[in-house]
Design goal:
Number of helices: 0
Mean pLDDT: 76
Number of domains: 2
Shape: elongated
Distance between the termini: 67 Å
Low-confidence stretches: 126-132
Radius of gyration: 27 Å
CATH class of the largest domain: Mainly Beta
CATH topology of the largest domain: Immunoglobulin-like
Number of strands: 15
Strand content: over 45%
Oligomer: single chain
Length: 203
């Protein structure tokens, strides 16, 4: 890292040689370790940002956090552990820049993060417990508790794009246990539990 002299020597068949020296500016290599690419946050969330420069960390003096190309935060030190207070809804490009004591800098590879609208069900989370899955069984037990006034939908997808509703139940303040079917012909897939706020028909 820093300015390094590189000497190149060429020798011909007669033994005559010639050399030249040039200087290369070696920059620190930095990487964002948190958040991961395509991480999702709700509007208003505090976003933790961490990065390091690996073997060159001892030479780093300060950092910049860039969002969509603009410097949003700065920190001193040889590693980065900071936060972004909040970002507007949408997709954002996140990168960090590290500076060494000679003021050489290196920009990390940018990652994309997504900020989605704040959920209307703030502070309401389903308590979900998944039973042991035996690949020879045709179903597996699912146990959860969800607030009254919400529908609980168990969905399945093979590609995380198209979702099929397997079960739809009204929320209850008591534990509910259901047997979720393993769909015939599927060898892999994803299950999720959604809370949907019930509509007030009196409005």
């Amino acid at each position: 890292q820093g300015t390094t002299a590189i000497r190149i020597t060429a020798t011909d068949a007669a033994g005559n040689s010639s050399s030249s020296t040039s200087h290369a500016d070696l920059k620190p290599i930095v990487k964002i370790t948190e958040p991961v690419k395509y991480a999702q946050f709700e509007a208003g969330d505090i976003i933790s940002v961490e990065a390091d420069a690996g073997a060159f960390a001892a030479q780093i003096s300060r950092w910049e956090i860039l969002v969509n190309g603009n410097v949003l935060n700065q920190r001193d030190g040889n590693s980065l552990s900071s936060v972004i207070e909040s970002l507007p809804e949408g997709m954002h490009q996140l990168a960090v820049k590290a500076y060494d004591f000679s003021n050489h800098s290196s920009l990390s590879k940018a990652i994309k993060i997504i900020v989605i609208p704040k959920s209307d069900t703030e502070q309401i989370q389903p308590r979900l417990r998944l039973g042991k899955i035996n690949k020879n069984e045709q179903n597996f037990p699912l146990n959860f508790l969800a607030p009254i006034g919400f529908q609980c939908c168990v969905q399945f997808s093979e590609d995380l794009i198209n979702w099929e509703i397997l079960h739809r139940l009204e929320g209850t303040d008591e534990n509910v246990e259901i047997a979720v079917e393993v769909l015939p012909g599927t060898s892999k897939g994803f299950y999720r539990l959604l809370l949907i706020e019930a509509q007030d028909d009196t409005k």
